[in-house]
Design goal:
Blueprint: E1 2-6, H1 10-21, E2 25-30, H2 33-42, E3 46-49, H3 55-60, E4 68-71, H4 76-88, E5 93-97, H5 101-104, H6 107-113, E6 118-120, H7 122-136, E7 146-147, E8 150-156, H8 168-174, E9 178-185, E10 188-190, E11 203-209, H9 210-220, E12 231-235, H10 239-250, E13 254-259, H11 262-271, E14 275-279, H12 285-290, E15 298-301, H13 306-318, E16 323-327, H14 331-334, H15 337-340, E17 344-346, H16 348-360, E18 366-372, E19 376-382, E20 403-410, E21 413-415, E22 428-434, H17 438-445
Helix pairs in contact: 1-16, 1-17, 7-10, 7-16
Length: 455
């Protein structure tokens, strides 16, 4: 497919990198020549040094022949206009990144009047994942993932202490007909392999037949377990802090926001009800103590600085706050989280890229997908005979470490795969993939290029 990306910033770069992994023809448009040169030196994409807001530029690249245009410049209004122009010039589908809360209140109207197919908001995406973690806790009853005969269950391994210390081969032997597909440990989601062992405190994600999973859930889930969240402190009153405070307050949770900018505090006070807004430096320990940080059930660090977010999260965890979540924008920091003991770290750009890819992959017959703690994705797709994953046993496939074939629907049968399993054309395959490995997943799902003489 042909895809145009307007904006070569961090998000545009990530989307382009993922799309070329899936063998798409990608053109990136940006006004900054230096940024484009850097992008072209790293990725095999076409670049155009121009202003995509000009209809003539879109006409010159024959945007009507493109399957998708993704507008992700640094300005909402520009993205809306670019996407609208592209759609009216014949582009099949258009996507715009829109972040301003003022726009989000009327997003349906904007989308309909400007003829935009999809609006993505990274801040709202990360807010949804944090809210799920704090309020819904991803339990099966909240529908994290259930398709066909397969269901996924999340539970803390402490509920089955005999599994602690066992490697994956032995764990899966203790759970007949089921498979451990992901582990959440100290804020980091891990796709496990044979030598990995379960540790005390791990959150375990198990897939299997729906009837088996429901039976397991009776043993490991506690009714009413997640009803005690009452007080949440958010450090940073940016877009993520605003969206999250709004959702939590609507759930009758007591929320405090600490924000450094006095002007932003006024804005928050005008747009939030039943939320305490405090003007101050969130890195000031004395201020946090005065605001009873030790009494909080959860703390979310959502400033614009990764270093501050992680250090504040670590401090809160060391003071005994139960749930501590950090917003991070650089992948290098995500890898540090498991060493720091933070409950969860989320990258809004990774979530936005996954959302875009699932829309583009719709033409590759993706059936359904769902994020796991904002760091991994579980998805089901129908296997095309030209895909690279067919015709050889799984043990001979060079899968990335962050990718796992979790289950296969074949007709009316659900298969929990082993090393000798061979994926067949028409199978509905469930895969778990870390968002950091989503580019590699695109390479696995892309076509081999074999001609289809029989159709």
């Amino acid at each position: 497919m042909k895809v145009a990306i307007a904006g070569a910033g961090k998000l545009g770069h990530k989307i382009a990198n993922a799309l070329i992994g899936g063998d798409h023809d990608v053109t990136v448009i940006d006004k900054n020549e230096e940024t484009l040169h850097k992008l072209a030196s790293q990725l095999d994409v076409m670049t155009l040094n121009a202003n995509a807001k000009q209809a003539s530029v879109l006409q010159d690249i024959h945007i009507g022949s493109y399957d998708y245009l993704i507008a992700c410049t640094d300005e909402d209004e520009k993205n809306i206009v670019i996407a609208s122009f592209a759609k009216n010039l014949g582009c099949s589908s258009v996507i715009a990144r829109v972040r301003d809360p003022e726009h989000m209140h009327q997003i349906d109207f904007i989308r309909e009047t400007m003829n935009i197919d999809l609006v993505i908001n990274p801040d709202l995406g990360i807010t949804t994942e944090i809210y799920k973690y704090l309020v819904e806790k991803y339990s099966l009853t909240n529908g994290i993932f259930s398709t066909g005969r397969a269901s996924l269950l999340e539970f803390r391994v402490d509920k089955m202490p005999h599994l602690i210390g066992l490697d994956m081969i032995r764990v899966n032997g203790e759970l007949p007909g089921m498979l451990v597909v992901a582990i959440s440990r100290k804020g980091k989601v891990i796709v496990p392999h044979g030598d990995d062992t379960l540790q005390k405190g791990d959150l375990v994600y198990v897939i299997g037949q729906r009837v088996d999973i429901l039976e397991l859930s009776k043993r490991v889930l506690e009714k009413g377990k997640y009803t005690d969240l009452q007080k949440v402190m958010i450090i940073g009153g940016g877009k993520t802090g605003l969206f999250l405070a709004q959702k939590l307050a609507d759930f009758n949770i007591s929320v405090k926001i600490i924000e450094r900018s006095k002007e932003r505090c006024y804005y928050l006070a005008e747009h939030l009800e039943d939320v305490i807004i405090l003007h101050g430096d969130g890195t000031d320990i004395n201020l946090l103590e005065e605001e009873n940080i030790d009494d909080m059930d959860a703390l979310v660090t959502a400033t614009g600085f990764d270093e501050d977010n992680l250090l504040l999260a670590l401090m809160a965890k060391n003071r005994g706050v139960d749930d501590v979540i950090a917003k991070v924008s650089r992948g290098i920091y995500t890898d540090m989280v498991s060493q720091m003991g933070v409950d969860m770290a989320l990258n809004p750009q990774d979530i936005a890229v996954a959302q875009v890819l699932r829309v583009v992959q719709g033409k590759k017959r993706v059936v359904s997908s769902q994020l796991i703690q904002g760091q991994a994705e579980i998805m089901e797709f129908i296997v095309d005979h030209r895909m690279r994953i067919t015709e050889k046993p799984l043990k001979n496939m060079e899968l990335p470490k962050g990718v796992l074939i979790a289950a296969i629907h074949r007709g009316q049968e659900l298969i929990i795969p082993g090393g000798e399993t061979i994926i067949q054309t028409g199978d509905r395959v469930i895969i778990v993939c870390l968002l950091s490995d989503i580019v590699e997943l695109e390479k696995i799902l892309r076509n081999t290029g074999k001609l289809d003489f029989l159709k």
